[in-house]
Amino acid sequence: MGGHMTSAPTDQAIPAPAAPRLGYGEALRRLAGAQKGAKGVSLYSRYVNRPVGRLLAAGAYRARMTPNQVTLVSGAFSGAGIAALAVAAPSWGLAVAVWGALAVGFAFDSADGQLARLLGTGGPAGEWLDHVVDCAKITALHAAVLITFYRHFALPGDGWLLLPLGFQLAAVMIFFGGLLADKLKPKSKAGDAAPSRLRAVALLPVDYGVFCAVFLLLGSQDAFRYAYLAFFAVHAVFLAAFLTKWFREIRLAS
């Protein structure tokens, strides 16, 4: 009969109920067990930034944020600190505000990857976004130092204006060179060696989180200039060492 209604197929798939959300404590526990290796990581990132990022990742998980959203929050904090550095006159209050924004942004930078591992949603698009935000942050930060040098500092000579440009070059080359070396070097099939504590200490001066502490000296022009110069000198030395190491490893592996 034309009016007969057919019943729905009995083998139609029924969506499985969504898994219940983990509590904050359980999310923290799982995050602690899903950390990346500590090889090549400074003590600051290992014992300060990653643990803080873990707390933020658990909070972001409970707030149902995606890793990409956490990446954008990281960029927003960093961008706010950089903008304040470029626009406002140096003071001790600005020093704390800039450092705080940069440090929180760096912690969220750790949180996005941890959240992706917890959710099992990591992928090339998220990695690309994370690296683009990092590159923008590094480039803009030293540009903001150049602006504040020019606008607000009583420099003893114009040569000081070249310092942020040199630092920017060194920082970008370390960032880009390290990423490219990781892509080009073959992955080791053997298990990673135990992380070296001596190396973790030696890497402290080129850890972004440690470098951010230099902005706590913004209230004193001389203290900031010479501390910034010292960090640049260390970065220049590490840049030469890193480039030599990466080139040798890639050449031997090819």
Automatic annotation (TrEMBL):
Keywords: Membrane, Transferase, Transmembrane, Transmembrane helix
Transmembrane segments: 70-88, 159-181, 201-220, 226-247
Biological process terms in GO annotation: phospholipid biosynthetic process
GO cellular component: membrane
Gene Ontology molecular-function annotations: phosphotransferase activity, for other substituted phosphate groups
Pfam families: CDP-OH_P_transf
Family stated for the protein in its record: Belongs to the CDP-alcohol phosphatidyltransferase class-I family.
Protein name, as recorded: CDP-alcohol phosphatidyltransferase
